Amino acid sequence: MDDPNIHIKNRYVPNDELAKDICDSRVAVFPYSSSTGTHTVQTSLALGCKVVATDVGSFKELLTVDSGLVGDIVPYGNIKKLVACMRESLETDFDCSASAEKFSRIYSVENWAQFVFNEVKK
Fold first, then answer.
1. Which among 14, 46, 50, 3 has a CA at the least distance from the CA of 30?
2. Residue 16: what are its φ and ψ, rounded to 5°?
3. Whole-prediction pTM value?
4. CA neighbor of 103 nearest in space, from 57, 54, 29, 39
5. 34-38: long-range contacts (C-beta < 8 A, 24 or more apart)?
6. 25-55 residue pLDDT tens
7. Alpha carbon distance 93, 16 (integer Å)
8. Using CA atoms, how far apart are residues 30 and 56, in angstroms rounded to an integer?
9. Dist CA 96 CA 105 (whole Å)
């Protein structure tokens, strides 16, 4: 793909660089083959960036239709679907501010502390 709007970084990206890249982007794309402790999708959502990610690890849970967060999940290895989602995302106007606010509410420290407190009390 030879598109000046698409920048590929196939390497570890430090937190400060990741945050800058996300803030400078309309869409963050994570075509991972597996996922463990990465927080790329969460960081993107919290910063108000639309996400296109493969259906690995927690990505599919974060970006389900029920979550109300702005993003698309594509099957791992489906390059045509990945490219189509990327292009559609770049060609579509969308506002991620409500998604970023919802993400911040859902995953706030206060909510998680209350959840842990309630679980301990059981």
1. 50
2. -65, -40
3. 0.75
4. 39
5. 35/59
6. 888 999 988 876 668 888 888 888 889 999 8
7. 27
8. 10
9. 14
